[in-house]
Structures are given as structure tokens and as C-alpha cells.
Amino acid sequence: MTSFAAEPEHVTEIRRQLARWVAEKMPREKRREWDREATWDRTLFREIAEMGLIGLTIPEEYGGQGEDIYAAAAVIEELCQGGPSMAGPFIHAAFYGGLNISENGSKAQKEELLPKLARGELFLAYGLSEPNVGGDLPSVGTRVERQGNEIVINGAKRWCTGADWADYIYCLCRSGEPGARHGNLTFVLVPTNAKGVSMQAIEHANLRYTHSMDVYLDEVRLPESAIVGGPEKWNKGWDALAGRALDVEKIEITAVAFGLARAALEEAWRYAGEREQFGKRIGQHQAIAHKLVTARTKLAACRHMLYHAAWLASTGQPCSAETAMAKLYVADTGVEIGLACQQVIGAYGLSDAYDIERNLRDLLGMPIVGGSSDMQKNNLARMWRL
Fold first, then answer.
1. Residues 355, 28: contact at Cβ < 8 Å?
2. Which ranges carry the Acyl-CoA dehydrogenase/oxidase N-terminal domain (predicted)?
3. How far out from the chain centre does Cα 334 lie?
4. Looking at domain 243-384, does it have CATH number 1.20.140.10?
5. Which class is 125-238 in CATH?
6. Is the pLDDT of residue 1 over 50?
7. DSSP collapsed to 3 states, the chain
8. Domain at 9-122, CATH from 3.40.50.360, 1.20.1540.10, 1.10.540.10, 1.10.3210.10
9. In the prediction, which pLDDT does 193 show?
10. Could you give the angle at which helices 69-79 and 9-25 cross, rounded to 10 degrees?
11. Cβ distance 302 to 334 under 8 Å?
12. Rounded mean pLDDT of the chain?
């Protein structure tokens, strides 16, 4: 399929290399194993880093390839053809780490962290949500206070995916009185091995490349240099959250939804060409053909939405509305595509004999994670001054 414009040649070459790599290194039996054990293969991930792909969100002067959001979205899409087990860690390094530190980090943080991120030696987890805070992030209750040249953090974070193996938590904290909301927020890089940090796993049904974690922060004492952007960014966390990095965050999760929907459709399409019932391949039955043709049409629309938003972000153009529309449409439509594909595969689609069972589980979460569909609608209504 083509998008709104011809795809850059280097992106097409990345796709070609990754398609071969996924087929060779992520066979179905390994995908099932990783999903059952909620884990991923660090040795295998090093090969992705060695290809230079994490560097697609990192400037060249820090060991990256130079920022290319379009290409990074394509990497996620292709990795998702083998499930989330490599796409997830890629996002933790390239987006949670590379993009956020490139956009918001201090000079010292960039010099220390970005080369390690580009080499795949470092991972970040998000510490945004809390037990009583989901979409309303300005209401976070985790407190950070200044004490001399140090900061002290107390509170709890929820849904910190991968915090048990990440090196830092990119943690949103309340740094002043709650009444100011947006004006009293600060991001802190919390080392996961810091004194006072403890965790408890949360079992979840989708994106099982890892566990999510409840993270407890009890008198966690850090130097002021742990403030994202340095001490001068105290109370300026909302600017970092609501800026360009959030737009690109929506592209990242949209690329996951699209990649999973594409994987589901390709598997169902193959199945319909092989499975015979009532004397012919099931794809020749009108009921099945209509499901698959409708799903493929919707997938083409999803691709346009995703890569138009990614192109705008890559070229530095305003894209808040386009990324929100893409997240909303691709997440919701991905669920429709996944359900249709499972129906095509039938009873086998409820077993682990095919990837559709896992892909559908993952797709069902897409309208929730990374900013729910209802939140995207609220944001778009506000942007469009409804």
C-alpha cells in the first residue's frame, strides 16, 4: 500500500531489513513463549540497537541517526509483525528515552544518557499515572520538594510499564501547591535502584512483553541534577508534557495499533486463502470476502492517518490535531479489524495456534492506553473550539 506520498527510500529499506529479521528471529513459538512469560529477549534486542534504529529519535552529535519520526514509526510497525516483544523495548529506549531527553533534557543529561540510549544500553519507563490519576495528569499527587541542593520525592505511581527492568522512571511530580495545577509540575529522572524505590507487579492481559508496575516512592532523595532539563525547569513540567513530545507519543502508540492490525489482517488473509470449507477456499465465500475487503480498506485509511501525522511531526509542522485524530481512529478501527480477522479464522482464532488471539488482546487495549479514545475526542473538541 502507498500513503499520501511516496515513502522515502531509506524507510523502505528499513522495512525490507526488518521484515526479514522478524521472520528469522521472532518465530511463532518464540512469540508465544515471550507472551506467556511476559518477557523479552535482551540479546536479540541488541541486534536492533546495532542496526542504529534507536538512533532515529536521537541527534547525530549524541550518537544517533538524527531525528526521523516517520522512520521510527515504520520500525514500530514492522517489529509489531512479531508482536510487542521487540517493539515495546524499542519504544522505551527510542521514545520514552531518546525523544524525551532530546527534547527536554539538560545538556548534561543529553551528554550522559543519549549515547547509551542510542546503543540500546539504557531504558526509561513512564511514571505518569497514579492510583487516583489517569487522564487528568495535572492532578498528580506524588510530591517533590527541594531541600538544599537535593530533591525529595514521596508518592506512588501506577502502570509504570517495564519499571522493573528500566534504568530510570520519567516521573511526573507535584512541585508546588495543587491549586496551580499546570504551573506546579516537574519531571524527575528517578533511578529505579535509588533508595526508597519499591515496586509491585500488576498483571494485565495485553502487550505482555513485560509487566506494569506499581511504584512506591518513599523519601527518595536525589540531586537537583535529576530534574529533567536541570534545576531551571522546576515547575515547568507541563511544558514538557504538553509539547511536541506528547504529539510524538501519540504517533508511537498509533504505530503499535496499526502494526498489530496489519499483522492480524495478513494472518487472516493467508488463512482465507488456505482453509477450505464447502468445496472451496473460504476467501471465495462472499461473507468472508466482504469481511476481509472491508478490513483491508479500513487498514489503508489507518495507514494514511498514521503516516500523515508522522510526516508532519518529522517535518516540524504543527500536528497536535492530526496525532490525536490518528490515535483515535487507528486505535478504534484496529479493534474492528482484529475482531473481523478473528471471526475469519474462527475457533482457531481463540487458541494460541495463530497469532490473532494475542494480536486481538493487544488491540483491545489500544483505545485505552496512551490517552484513551474519549480523551482524544475531548482534546480535539477543545482544539477545534467546539
1. yes
2. 11-121
3. 15
4. yes
5. mainly beta
6. no
7. CCCCCCCCHHHHHHHHHHHHHHHHHCCHHHHHHHHHHCCCCHHHHHHHHHCCCHHHHCCHHHCCCCCCHHHHHHHHHHHHHHCHHHHHHHHHHHHHHHHHHHHHCCHHHHHHHHHHHHCCCCCEEEECCECCECCCHHHCCCEEEEECCEEEEEEEECCCCCCCCCCEEEEEEECCCHHHHHHHEEEEEEECCCCCEEEEEECCCCCCCCCEEEEEEEEEEEEHHHECCCHHHCCCHHHHHCCHHHHHHHHHHHHHHHHHHHHHHHHHHHHHHHCEECCEEHHHCHHHHHHHHHHHHHHHHHHHHHHHHHHHHHCCCCCHHHHHHHHHHHHHHHHHHHHHHHHHHHHHHHCCCCCHHHHHHHHHCCCCCCCCHHHHHHHHHHHCCC
8. 1.10.540.10
9. 97
10. 20
11. yes
12. 94
- Least confident span in 200-204, 260-264, 298-302: 200-204
**Has residue 5 got a pLDDT over 80?**
no
Residue intervals of the chain classified under CATH 1.20.140.10 are 243-384
Q: pLDDT per residue over 298-315, tens digit each?
A: 999 999 999 999 999 999
Q: Which amino acid is at 246?
A: L
Read off the pLDDT band of 245 (50, 70, 90): confident
Say what the pTM is.
Answer: 0.95
